[in-house]
Amino acid sequence: MKSVDNHLAEVLADIEPLAPMDLQLLDAHGCLLTEDVAADRDLPAFDNSAMDGYAVRLPDVTGASEEFPALLPVVGDIMAGSAQIERINPGTCVRIMTGAPVPAGADAIVPVEWTDGGITQVRIHRAPAEGQFIRRRGTHIRAGEVVLRAGTWLGATQIGVLAAIGRDRVKVRPKPRVVVVSTGSELVELGREAGPGQIHDSNSFMLAAAAVEAGAVAYRVGIVPDDAEQLLSTLEDQLGRADLVITSGGVSQGAYDTVKETLSRLGTVGFDRVAMNPGMPQGFGTIGTEAVPIFTLPGNPVSAYVSFEVFVRPAIRRMLGVEPLHRPVVQARCLQAFSSPEGKRQYVRGWYDAEAETVRPVGGHASHLIGDLAQANAFIVVPEEVTEVKRDDVVDVMLLERT
Ligand SMILES: Nc1nc2c(c(=O)[nH]1)N[C@H]1C(S)=C(S)[C@@H](COP(=O)(O)OP(=O)(O)OC[C@H]3O[C@@H](n4cnc5c(N)ncnc54)[C@H](O)[C@@H]3O)O[C@H]1N2
Ligand code: MOO
Ligand SMILES: [Mg+2]
Questions:
Q1: What are 124's strand-pairing partners?
Q2: What are the beta bridge partners of residue 388?
Q3: Pick from 112, 213, 337, 389: most CB atoms within 10 A?
Q4: Do residues 91 and 72 make contact, with C-beta atoms less than 8 angstroms apart?
Q5: From CA 289, how far away is CA 307, in angstroms rounded?
Q6: Domain ranges for the chain
Q7: pLDDT cut 90: percent of the chain above it
Q8: From the centroid of its chain, how far is CA 82?
Q9: CATH T-level fold of 48-135
Q10: How confident is the model at residue 265 (pLDDT cuts 50, 70, 90)?
Q11: Residue 298 alpha carbon to ligand 2 centre in Å
Q12: Which of 192, 252, 277 for mutating ligand 1's site (highest number of atoms within 8 Å of CB)?
């Protein structure tokens, strides 16, 4: 049997970051920026008001107080978006709203709360300091300044600053497009009745969701029966839009496990028994003229998910160009004893308590127990040579939290 580490190394040796592309801003969300982005303008782009109030000249309001308010005629109104009033003359003021351009001649903004709120004339009972409540042009970002460096991951706030400087396209590594196919003649689509001997396809939903959580775009193709020709034509159909293909099922020793036979016709996919539990039968290689990487994962749901976490997720992250490739692994005290198969790395569903730094196995170890998987937030990773984990042993814990 092949070791987990060898299989992972072979997989990653065949995976490269995707080539950068110019994408629309929202399509770049969740991607890695591959260019330095500099502002082509100052931010703020013009002097503007930080308050709803009045734009004034300082000499006209100096010393204003409750007892001796300054009284000024209001000669106009500047709302945000208006650029009509360019200047104010001595002895006058204008009403101004937050974000509106400050007219030349104005030295400060008086918030409306410091006044009687007058429309044609205003009583001001507190004097602002020079420049108070004016957001000056270029004080935040200067034209030419780099706002985001190549290598930055674009989350919501990075998308925000790009929009603020007017960028509608940016160069990023695109998200890998992951095609997910379930194989198995026993599978039925959600919404249809599962007849005798049939079950609903859960792997393709779970794996498509996992691919999205890893940062990819997922296309769930659905179910292909255990039929070589149908699998072949589905994969040929899908290759045009795939950067990566994931299948589940049909890779073990069954008489109708057709995935192996079919894929040997399409490209170079190797099938191995990997020394892990769950997830022993694994296939990986490339298919089609574009050499699209394909993972053929075992059909048992927990086996498919563990395989995704250990092999597929790091591959997706490498394609995205993001680090770290792997889930964080921490150490924790195990609250319950259990045994582990010799010679295999075991991934045990667990509940990790970060505060107590403990982990507790969740449910059984069998690879069809998907309900237990859904209750876990971690895998306890038991090394190949360990056959018994005792209560209070310190164990490695792979955290499944979203990162
Ligand atoms: N004689 C042997 N039999 C098996 C071995 C073995 O070494 N010798 N290995 C076992 C192990 S370990 C695993 S894991 C499975 C892998 O099986 P396959 O990849 O061939 O998958 P299938 O046989 O198609 O299905 C296995 C199991 O999972 C269910 N399944 C499949 N697809 C889905 C889906 N999309 N959604 C929900 N459930 C699914 C399927 O109904 C089967 O119960 O082989 C063992 N056997
Ligand atoms: O390896 Mo299978 O993946 O144990 O259930
Ligand atoms: Mg099988």
A1: 70, 115
A2: 339
A3: 389
A4: yes
A5: 26
A6: 4-18+175-320, 21-41+153-173, 48-135, 329-399
A7: 93
A8: 38
A9: Molybdopterin biosynthesis moeA protein; domain 3 (2.170.190)
A10: low
A11: 7
A12: 252
The atom of ligand 1 lying closest to the CA of 300 is: 28
Burial of 195 (0-12, 13-18, 19+ CB in 10 A): exposed
Question: Ligand 1 pocket, 254 CB below 6 A?
Answer: yes
Tell me whether strands 292-297 and 217-224 are parallel, antiparallel or unpaired. Answer: unpaired
**Ligand 2 center to 280 CA (angstroms):** 5
ipTM of the complex, rounded to two decimals: 0.98
Please say whether the beta carbons of 245 and 205 come within 8 A. no
Helix, strand or coil for residue 145? coil
Ligand in nearest proximity to the CA of 277 = 2
CA of 255 to the centre of ligand 2 (A): 17
Please state which of the ranges 101-110, 178-187, 264-273, 301-310 shows the lowest mean pLDDT.
264-273
Q: How many CA atoms lie within 13 A of 222 on its CB side?
A: 5
> Tell me: the pLDDT tens digits for 19-30?
999 999 999 999
Name the architecture of domain 329-399.
Beta Barrel (2.40)
User: How far apart are the C-alpha atoms of 172 and 151, rounded to whole Å?
Assistant: 9
Residue 309 CA to residue 325 CA, distance in Å, equals: 10
Query: Quick one: which of 285, 298, 309 has its CA closest to 235?
Result: 285
How far is 86 from 78, CA to CA, in rounded Å? 10
User: The dihedral of CA 65, 66, 70, 72: what is its sign?
Assistant: positive
Domains 4-18+175-320 and 329-399 are alike in CATH topology: no
Burial class of residue 370 (count of CB atoms within 10 Å of its CB; 0-12, 13-18, 19+)? middle
Q: Which residues of 35-57 are buried (b: 16+ CB within 10 A; e: fewer)?
A: eebebeebbbbebbbebbbbbbb
Say which residue the tokens 């204003």 belong to.
Answer: 64
